Amino acid sequence: MKISVITATWNCAGTVADCLVSVAGQTYAAREHLLIDGGSRDGTLDVLHAHRAGLAVLVSEPDEGIYDALNKGIARATGEVVGFLHADDVYADAQVLARVAAAFADPAVDAVYGDLVYVRKADTGRVVRHWRSGAYDPASLRRGWMPPHPTLYLRRSLYERHGVFDRRYRIAGDYDLMLRMLSRLTGQVVYLPQVLVRMRVGGESNRSLSRILRKSGEDYRALRENGIGGAGALVWKNLSKVPQFFRRG
Prior knowledge:
Blueprint: E1 3-9, H1 16-24, E2 31-37, H2 44-50, E3 57-60, H3 66-76, E4 81-84, E5 90-91, H4 96-104, E6 109-119, E7 127-131, E8 153-155, H5 156-162, H6 173-182, E9 188-200, H7 209-225, H8 231-239
Parallel strand pairs: 1-2, 1-4, 2-3, 6-9
Antiparallel strand pairs: 4-8, 5-9, 6-7, 6-8
Helix pairs in contact: 6-7
């Protein structure tokens, strides 16, 4: 079973090499790494070409944002299972894809996810938040629950059935997609109670007050458009993040 890992890049020359090395270092051999660049101008392409041998796909062209780029990756993916690793992020260890593949060995499984830690941008060994997902319960979607998107792997057939990222969203397209998928899939969802991804802090959704407000507005829209809930679910979603700052394992 092949796993497709998609990475979207744009002007990230300082971090993308870590991401590339992390994927290349996975012990699970039946994988492909698809790199979709938005036309970087800061030296990112030099880094990508230096690692070209490890990439199944390398595209660099203007796009309409990260969700457009990720959709391009999905369209080119050939694996039975699809996941994402952002340019600032790395796998927690070399066995991550092997554990994901083992879970998907059961044909009844449609989705696999795990835990994530937020780390310092300049020191990926220093954890500042721990996102322990917990076991999946469909009813929890109405209480604002969601898995960390970089840890979520889905069968590619689900994108064919339920669609890809909605480009109308600028920040919360991943939340919209997860709500759409998890509320409609009929197969099993497996939780791996282990850290799968180390994510650098300073992402798109929380780098300024205006973006935090926009993210909340888009989250609310995603909840409503997917028929999951409204303001109450949004409040619980935001409150659920507070314990992440106090967990240490």
